[in-house]
Specification:
Elements lengths: L3 H15 L14 H4 L5 E11 L2 E11 L6 E5 L18 E8 L23 E2 L7 E5 L2 E3 L18 E2 H12 L7 H19 L2 H18 L11
Helix pairs in contact: 3-4
């Protein structure tokens, strides 16, 4: 049996490793998902429909920022030393919220005609960075991942409770549509949305659902007419 000291050392080592960038990637941490969405070209929720080479095709289910006409988009992942997550992480059928950059320029030697499905990507497609919390996993109607500013750098799966997708959508709408000369009221609204996500990430979703079910039951009970017992019965 491992001693408490060895378990603590292993935990500290894992925590330290989570706060360092991948060895084959040289980039600075750009922030959690809530911090990077405003600097990206497209934020969408969708399901991985296919995978080939270092790219995935995402069936778009909801557009939260950027062009809203996409039904399917191709997203290019890691190859060579490009700072992106591995394509194997995004299995077919998995659902995600992704903050993406559009590919406007392909660098020299970024595309090889003999291996078209393994490359930097094509102009007009999108790429996913791993220099921040640019992706969140969707489970049911909840999202999980490096969502909040206080979460550890380079930890893409920090311990948290899932945050409702509509709450994230509300935050993104408020955040990306704010301007540099935003009013104090808008700033307070952004803060309130962030605080709401922070609170949701710390609550027990099962307890929250039980509370909602209880309220619905009580409302239904109030509407039921109780018959008085008949005399002699």
């Amino acid at each position: 049996m491992r001693s408490l000291a060895s378990l603590l050392a292993a935990a500290l080592s894992a925590a330290a490793a989570a706060q360092t960038p991948p060895e084959d990637c040289a980039c600075l941490w750009q922030g959690s998902f809530s911090e990077v969405v405003q600097t990206t070209d497209l934020v969408v929720a969708g399901e991985v429909s296919s995978r080939k080479g270092n790219a995935i095709d995402l069936s778009v289910q909801q557009s939260m920022h950027g062009p809203a006409w996409h039904e399917s988009i191709r997203i290019w992942m890691k190859v060579a030393s490009y700072c992106r997550p591995p394509v194997e992480q995004f299995s077919i059928g998995s659902r995600w919220v992704l903050a993406l950059h559009k590919i406007d320029v392909v660098p020299e030697n970024g595309f090889n005609p003999s291996t078209p499905s393994i490359s930097y990507g094509r102009i007009g497609d999108y790429r996913l960075s791993n220099c921040g919390g640019y992706w969140l996993r969707v489970n049911g109607n909840l999202v999980e991942g490096n969502l909040l500013p206080e979460m550890p750098r380079w930890d893409y799966q920090p311990p948290m409770r899932g945050v409702p997708l509509p709450l994230l959508s509300r935050y993104i709408h408020e955040r990306v549509h704010s301007t540099k000369d935003e009013t104090e009221g808008q700033a307070n609204s952004d803060s309130a949305a962030l605080d709401a996500m922070r609170q949701a990430s710390q609550e027990d979703p099962a307890l929250r659902e039980l509370m909602l079910d209880t309220r619905q039951f009580l409302r239904g009970y109030d509407s039921v007419e109780v018959d008085s017992p008949s005399n002699g019965n």
